[in-house]
Design goal:
Elements: H1 16-19, H2 21-25, E1 31-32, H3 44-56, H4 66-80, E2 89-92, H5 95-106, E3 112-117, H6 122-129, E4 133-138, E5 140-142, E6 144-146, H7 149-159, E7 161-167, H8 179-191, E8 195-199, E9 226-230, E10 244-247, H9 251-263, H10 271-283, H11 285-309, E11 314-315, E12 323-327, H12 335-346, E13 348-349, E14 351-352, E15 363-367, H13 372-386
Parallel strand pairs: 1-13, 3-4, 3-7, 7-8, 8-9
Antiparallel strand pairs: 2-10, 5-6, 9-10, 11-12, 12-15, 14-15
Helix pairs in contact: 3-10, 4-10, 5-6, 5-9, 7-8, 11-13, 12-13
Bound molecules: pyridoxal-5'-phosphate.
Length: 387
């Protein structure tokens, strides 16, 4: 039995995934397979680091220790062959807050910001909330999601795009963009002086034989016009500790980001965030290997289940992330009808595809990062509603 088979009751733990269902849907016994966190315990290394800090019992202001920088630098180097220096690393509470700060740092109100469609919903929200113009370029599906470079180039020119937010690997499509794809999109952005923000929070949840390339490793010149956002929180199931990193090699880009961060007084970070991130990077490697094996099997089970039990729902295996993109278009339901059916009849909560953009219409995103018994229960419920 794997440690990840253990079913943990997350109800009444202030969990967004589990504790908002009754309020939102006025129903009991819904099975949540939506928000992107995992129903697993964090690594022992992290829990014991928290315990030692708790035992001291003093929770005052803290500084960032060199040991945290070392842990991040070493993780990036050994895991992603990415060389980053201490002075190129900034911290922030979350990747989403850093997306918002990037929009403020690198564009002016009214400027156009490009994102893909579909993509993680806060990409659009940070653009619109900051009164910038949202420009979306559809990914196209050719077995898997692909970027439409011609369309991106047309939009960059027509809309005078200043910033492009890339999701690498891609949520919800599970694509690990290849080095060639990153080079193509990077060259395009360089040609038109478009700054790139590469959100790489899913960088560690990648299934062999795929290999992840950080945007700045795709070409040595890309560091001059891009920044990279990442965190240990997605990898090690620590979303609640609120800690993330911003890698900026270019001095001007880093100064601009720091300026906005200071202006908003957002340059202090949570002590638990620091402790969790360092402990995870230092001691979580084996846990992560076991997790990846477990998740890969969950992907396989989910894929096979739809093939055999519900073949009209099209699904492909993600190259990365514990999220799978389900195509329900066969049933010809509106997005509202589809969401209602999943909730009221399947009694499962998934993420409606339409929230990721127009391209997500008639799709749903399922989170398979749960014990196998929970996964099977959820899949059976979906099948029963659609059979
Ligand atoms: C692409 C992407 N970026 C950012 C986040 C969230 O980042 P944070 O919790 O650090 O704000 C998620 C969470 O699902 C995500 O999928």
């Amino acid at each position: 039995m794997s440690q990840f088979d253990q079913v943990i009751d997350r109800k009444k733990t202030q969990s967004v995934k589990w504790d908002t269902l009754e309020k939102n849907y006025h129903q009991k016994d819904l099975l949540p397979m939506w928000v992107a966190d995992m129903d697993f315990k964090a690594p022992e290394a992290v829990r014991s680091a928290f315990n030692s800090y708790l035992e001291k019992g003093v929770f005052g202001y803290s500084i960032v220790p060199d040991s945290l920088y070392d842990a991040i630098i070493s993780w990036q180097k050994t895991r992603h062959h990415f060389a980053i220096k201490k002075e190129e690393i900034l911290f922030n509470s979350g990747v989403v807050p850093s997306l918002a700060l990037s929009v403020q740092a690198y564009t002016d109100p009214g400027d156009a910001v490009l994102i893909h469609d579909p993509v993680y919903p806060p990409f659009a929200q940070v653009v619109e909330d900051n009164n910038r113009k949202l420009v979306r370029s559809n990914l196209f599906t050719d077995d898997k999601f692909m970027m439409d470079y011609d369309n991106m180039e047309r939009l960059i020119q027509e809309e005078d795009v200043k910033l492009f937010i890339l999701c690498n690997p891609h949520n919800p499509g599970g694509r690990v963009w290849s080095k060639k794809e990153l080079q193509d999109v990077g060259n395009l952005c360089r040609k038109y002086h478009v700054t790139v923000v590469s959100d790489e929070i899913h960088q560690d949840i990648v299934y062999q034989p795929e290999t992840f390339t950080t945007f700045q490793n795709a070409d040595p010149s890309f560091k001059d016009f891009s920044i990279v956002l990442t965190a240990a929180t997605k990898t090690f199931n620590l979303a609640g500790i609120k800690n993330s990193m911003v890698f900026i090699k270019d001095d001007k880009l880093r100064q601009a980001f720091e300026k906005i961060q200071k202006k908003n007084h957002q340059d202090d970070i949570n002590t638990f965030g620091m402790i969790g991130t360092q402990a995870a990077y230092e001691g979580g490697k084996e846990w992560l290997e076991e997790l990846l094996t477990y998740l890969k099997e969950n992907v396989e089970i989910t894929y096979q289940f739809f093939q055999s039990e519900l073949p009209n729902v099209k699904v492909s295996k993600p190259e990365a992330t514990y999220l799978m993109w389900l195509d329900f278009s066969f049933y010809q339901l509106t997005d509202k009808q589809l969401e209602k059916k999943i909730i009221n009849e399947a009694k499962v909560v998934l993420n409606p595809g339409i929230s990721y953009g127009e391209k997500g219409s008639q799709h749903m995103r399922i989170n398979i990062a749960c014990p196998r018994s929970t996964l099977k229960e959820g899949l059976q419920r979906i099948a029963a509603a659609f059979k």
